[in-house]
């Protein structure tokens, strides 16, 4: 594989994580988000489904419909897993701090590495293993006091979200000819369908204010944009590497909800700042050493 393709993949996956990092900021701008998590998940899921199918129509024309016949078992599993990740991410983010939710996503590289090894027999390179270990140290350091602001419900849902996204990432690598964006479209439809069933079962109002509905749709657009980049470059990097690079979502997410410019002011603790710097170091270490490897060969 050429070094240019690897370098491009690394850049776009980093960018995808950065785009995803605006999600917590969107949620924090909602009115009483903790009261409408299922409505939020419904609208966001529908937005993901509609936007991606519109994108596929513009790129492929009406032929994009045939992609649903090619999705296969792995694509279906990936779509459902990503749908679960989307739902639990919202449930976590609306019940605990952005820092705690994002820190639970820090488990992604470890989970993805284990699943990829079992399912795909993907070996973990020495560079990736060292980078993951460094990132783990940063996440543990951040957790020392961030964990105190969380609830068990939020923590568990954050971990489930990590598991779902890790499975989705491995399925992208399992069959590289699977229509990847169609898999993401299924995830949006699954999240919307489950959310609608929960709302109907609880006899809840499925509608929200115009502001909350607009923000939910905006979040769906953010998710779609990043997933297009992430999915397109998934064939060039192992699953563990993909999820490691996407940890920029943690760094950006914590930063945006703190930045006074946006008016949320969730001030990160000293441990969170130091831990974030350690994660940044891990990503830089990975990037530099991976590039050296490909330039050498």
What does this structure look like?
The chain has 297 residues and is mainly alpha-helical. The model is unreliable at 293-297 (pLDDT under 50). The chain is globular and about 50 Å long. Helix 6 runs antiparallel to helix 11. It has helices at residues 3-20, 23-28, 37-60, 72-93, 98-104, 108-120, 126-146, 152-174, 180-201, 210-232, 239-245, 248-258, 270-296. The protein contains 13 helices and no strands.
Q: Topology of this structure?
A:
Blueprint: H1 3-20, H2 23-28, H3 37-60, H4 72-93, H5 98-104, H6 108-120, H7 126-146, H8 152-174, H9 180-201, H10 210-232, H11 239-245, H12 248-258, H13 270-296
Helix pairs in contact: 1-10, 1-12, 1-13, 3-4, 3-9, 3-10, 4-8, 4-9, 5-8, 5-12, 6-8, 6-11, 7-13
Total number of strands: 0
List unreliable stretches of 5+ residues: 293-297
Specify the biggest β-sheet: none
What's the multimeric state?
single chain
Summed up:
The protein is mainly α and 297 residues long. It has helices at 3-20, 23-28, 37-60, 72-93, 98-104, 108-120, 126-146, 152-174, 180-201, 210-232, 239-245, 248-258, 270-296. 75% of the residues lie in helices and 0% in strands.
